[in-house]
Design goal:
Length: about 350
Amino acid sequence: MAEALGTRTVSGGSTNGSVGPAIPWQDRPAGSKALVWRHRENPVIPRAPMPGVQGIYNSAVTPFGDGFAAVFRLEKTDRFPRLHVGWSEDALDWQIEPEPVVFSNWTDAPSHYAYDPRVTAIDGEYIVQWCGGHNGPTISLARTKDFRTFERLENAFLPFNRNGVLFPRKINGNYYMLSRPSDNGHTPFGDIYLSESPNLVHWGRHRFVMGKGGDQVGQWWQRTKIGAGPVPIETPEGWVMIYHGVIDTCNGFVYSMGVAILDLDEPWRVLYRTNQHVLTPEAPYEVSGHVPNVVFPVAALHDQPTGRLAIYYGAADTCTALAYTNLNELIEFTKANSAVF
Ligand code: BMA
C-alpha cells in the first residue's frame, strides 16, 4: 500500500522550492536492500490506456498546479510517435488527451515524428524537449505555461541528435542542455555532450561530458552508448544526472539505468559516476514488449523534505513504469561505487 502523504515541497525538475502535491511513494519492500525498487502495481500506465493506443512510454511528468502534468510519447496503431498531454492528481492515475499536442506557431509536417519528451520547469514556464524528425532525428523545443498552448522554438541542434535534457535553472547566466549526438538509425555509439545558450535559440560552446564504457574501464552495461534521462536534480553534492547505458548483445540492445554527479558550476565536469547499473530489465514488463529489455528513465519527482525520489521510465518501449529511491542514498551509493573515465 502506498502510504498517504500530506502536501510537501516537490521539485520535479523544478528548483523553485514551491509547495506542491504529494509525489507517489512506496517504501522499500520489507527485507529488500535494493537501492532502487519498483512500484508494486507497475506498469503505472499500461500499454493500451485507451482504445486505439498500443504504446505509451519514455514520457515526462512534472508537478503542475495542485497536481501533475505529463507529456507522453504515445503511439496509436499507426505506430507513429506523437506527444500527448496528460493530467493527474497523484501522478499515478492519468487522464490522457486523445489528440496530440498542436503548436500555436508551427505546423508540423506529417513526417515530423516526436518521441522521448522531457519537461523542464524554469523561470515560470515549462520547456518541452523531444526528439523530433526533421530530415532525421534531432532535439526540438517548445514552451508552455499551461500545457494547453505550446509555442515551438527553433530546433536546438542539427540532425542527428537525441536525448536533449535542459537543466532546471540558468548556470552563470545561460541555459544548459545535455544531448547525445547520434545517427539516423538505431545508433550503435553515443556519448553525452553539453551545450550552452543565452536564449534557448542559439546554442554553442559544446562540451564533451562523458563517454560510453567498454573493455578498458570494465563497464559493459554501458559499453555501446549512453544518454541523459530525467532533468538533473540540484543538490549540494552537484547535479544528479540519472542516465541510460546500453550494451549490445546477440539478442539486441539492453538499456539500464545509471547515475552521475556533475559539478554545479561547470556541469561538463563529472565528479562521480556509477560503476554499475542501478536498475536493469528484470520485471516481465521490462524484458517483454515491443522492444524487449529496455529500462529508459525520463523523469523524476523529488520530495525535498524526505529525499524521496520517484523515477518514471519507459519499459520495453511499450508502457510506463515507476521506481523509487532515496536521493541521499543514491548519492552516497554513486560516490562509493564510482568510476569516472
Ligand atoms: C532509442 C530510442 C528510444 C528507445 C530506445 C530503445 O534509440 O529510440 O526511444 O526507447 O532506443 O528501443
